[in-house]
Specification:
It contains 14 helices and 16 strands. By secondary structure, it is an alpha+beta fold. The chain folds into two domains: 90 residues, OB fold (Dihydrolipoamide Acetyltransferase, E2P), CATH 2.40.50; 277 residues, Bira Bifunctional Protein, Domain 2 (BirA Bifunctional Protein, domain 2, 2-Layer Sandwich), CATH 3.30.930. The model has no long low-confidence stretch (mean pLDDT 95). Bound molecules: 4-amino-1,4-dioxobutan-2-aminium adenosine-5'-monophosphate and magnesium ion (MG). 4-amino-1,4-dioxobutan-2-aminium adenosine-5'-monophosphate binds next to strand 11, strand 15, strand 16 and helix 14.
Length: 452
């Protein structure tokens, strides 16, 4: 039985078996206490022995064990039961176990990413990730969205920004220093990449099934060495036919509120831990978002607000600039005191597929910003006019023939449609209050970082 289940049992005196990893061992005069954790929940279960034996003497932190005994009421506050232990068997020893201290630095734990899930913090992060991934599916499935598995290897740059990892079966050791590579001899017969977004393929399914979403790994080769960027991250991208930007904003707000409410309800024990040990007030921030109404503001209005307080910023805001973290922070914390959706950005700083406004200068884009983090969601209404999309692509020097399949959606039964993307790790960062995105994914990939 898992410790999570044992801790729920009422009956005293029941014979039980606990299997897990030793967190601590304390020896008192008449008793030996062994805390065992199996990761099924944050709590460990205390196993109390009234006499020593060879196995107990050899036991240390990190060993795996099996304890048999009887469930007993716990005298210590905060836990209902413990185990009056009868026997213990050592399953695996753990000499020179690296996780001996009560608290290790996040940097140290990153170096032993294969063991860090055995700490309270990383166990809690992993459980929260798992539950929230399920909540993503719950939200969309309950609203008749279909889950589409968009490809990971692609020949197209979905964001038109070019920060892609190349995929090849050619021997790169032989290729360097030689004349240009002949990609017709490569595995796919042309250049291929890891996807930066499943959006374009999701659009093709949205214009067939009406409501779809993708949830899969995406890859960006930007040299962004920040606490909010990963080179490999998971993205959730809904795409809805017959939906405009207003519908999109509503969906994004409902989605975030559902996820935060689910975290509060279903991950309560882990959230209380994050609140106490990782970031004070994190649970309260989530509650406030759930109770708030997201403020809507256009980019132009946002820049006006920022310009009023220009002296506050290192990067001086001006119409046309990309919003910096400090600007996003100011908008959420000082202007709106809560989540903000900024819309209608200058077309120059947004992707080619966004629907153009009548002013010819701005696009029907939206970024959802939340206090403390900044951008958590980015999306838009899509350009559904063939002429406008073709001319925008030409303006950007894109190869229109590469995207002819995408343009077909505008040729055959085009409809207004909209969607957005949310980085799953940004969500988990927000919910857990962890400081660095590298600590909310099991094995972070970032510039210069790819451990096994
Ligand atoms: O704003 P982005 O680049 O938008 C897209 O990729 C669109 N195709 C989405 C769509 O409309 N379907 O990325 C969307 C979100 C961001 O708001 C952020 O949460 C996350 O993905 N994100 C990253 N998360 C971690 N590391 C990175 N390097 C990220 N880049 C984007
Ligand atoms: Mg974005």
């Amino acid at each position: 039985m898992l410790i999570k289940e044992l801790l729920r049992l009422e009956a005293e005196g029941q014979s039980i078996t606990v299997r897990g990893w030793v967190r601590t061992k304390r020896e008192l005069k008449n008793f030996i206490f062994v805390e065992v954790n199996d990761g099924s929940c944050l709590a460990s279960i205390q196993c109390t022995f009234d006499r020593n034996n060879d196995t107990l003497a050899a036991l240390g932190t990190g060993c795996s064990v099996e304890v048999k005994g009887k469930l007993a009421p716990s005298p210590s506050a905060g836990q209902r039961s413990e185990v009056a232990a009868e026997t213990i068997s050592l399953i695996g020893s753990a000499d020179n176990y690296p996780l001996q201290k009560k608290r290790h630095s996040m940097e140290f734990l990153r170096e032993i990413a294969h063991l860090r899930a055995r700490t309270n913090t990383f166990g809690a992060v992993a459980r929260t990730r798992s539950r929230l991934a399920f909540a993503v599916h719950e939200f969309f499935q309950n609203r008749d969205f279909h889950y589409i598995h968009t490809p990971i290897i692609t020949a197209n740059d979905a964001e038109g920004a070019g920060a892609m990892f190349q995929v090849t079966a050619l021997d790169m050791d032989k290729a360097s220093g030689l004349p240009p590579v002949d990609y017709s001899k490569d595995f796919f017969g042309k250049k291929a990449f890891l996807t930066v977004s499943g959006q374009l393929e999701a659009e093709t399914y949205a214009t067939a099934l009406s409501r779809v979403y993708t949830f899969g790994p995406t890859f960006r080769a930007e040299n962004s060495n920040t606490a909010r960027h990963l080179a490999e991250f998971w993205m959730i991208e809904p795409e809805v036919a017959f939906a405009d930007l207003e519908d999109n904003m509503r969906l994004a707000e409902d989605f975030l509120k559902f996820l935060f409410a689910t975290a509060m309800e279903k991950c309560a024990e882990d959230l209380a831990f994050f609140d106490a040990r990782i970031q004070k007030g994190v649970a309260d921030t989530l509650r406030k978002v759930v109770e708030s109404r997201f403020v809507h503001i256009t980019y132009t209005e946002a820049v006006k607000e920022l310009e009023k307080q220009s002296e506050k910023f290192e990067f001086k805001p001006f119409w046309g600039c990309d919003l910096q973290s400090e600007h996003e922070k100011f908008l959420t914390e000082s202007v709106a005191s809560g989540p903000v959706i900024v819309t209608d950005y200058p077309k120059e700083i947004k992707a080619f597929y966004m629907k153009m406004n009548d002013d010819g200068k701005t696009a029907r884009a939206m970024d959802v910003l939340v206090p403390r983090l900044g951008e958590i969601i980015g999306g838009s209404q899509r350009e559904d006019s063939l002429e406008l999309l073709e001319s925008r692509m030409a303006e950007l020097g894109m190869n229109v023939t590469d995207y002819s399949w995408y343009l077909d959606l505008r040729r055959f039964g085009a409809v207004p449609h909209s969607g957005f993307g949310m980085g799953f790790e940004r969500l988990i960062l927000y919910i857990t209050g962890m400081a660095n995105i590298r600590d909310v994914v099991p094995y972070p990939r970032a510039p210069g970082l790819v451990e096994f």
